[in-house]
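---------- Forwarded message ----------

FYI, see the Lipoprotein record below. Original note from H. follows.
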Amino acid sequence: MKSVILLIFTAWLLSGCDYTAEADSAPSFTQEGIYIKTTDQDTIAVEIDGQRQKVKVPPAKRFECQSLPEHTAVQITYKKESSGRLRLEEMKRENNK
């Protein structure tokens, strides 16, 4: 029984490794944009190059994003995963905007 639980736990633990490896190997992009709003707990809407984009926000960055006023000029750094999903790395409020 212990070995079955250990096997399940190990498989669960390692299941995230592929995501991390893929996400870490993706190139990063930094662009100016407009923070629109938080759409749900782990996603924000940002206007980049005139197009509204959904960006997945890691848990460590959620409070920082939620504290920004809507329609704030920002500089956003993100990775584009092979699935096309954008994942936030960093977002800074633009000065003088």
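H. also flagged this: The domain at 27-93 is CATH 2.40.50.320 (OB fold (Dihydrolipoamide Acetyltransferase, E2P)).
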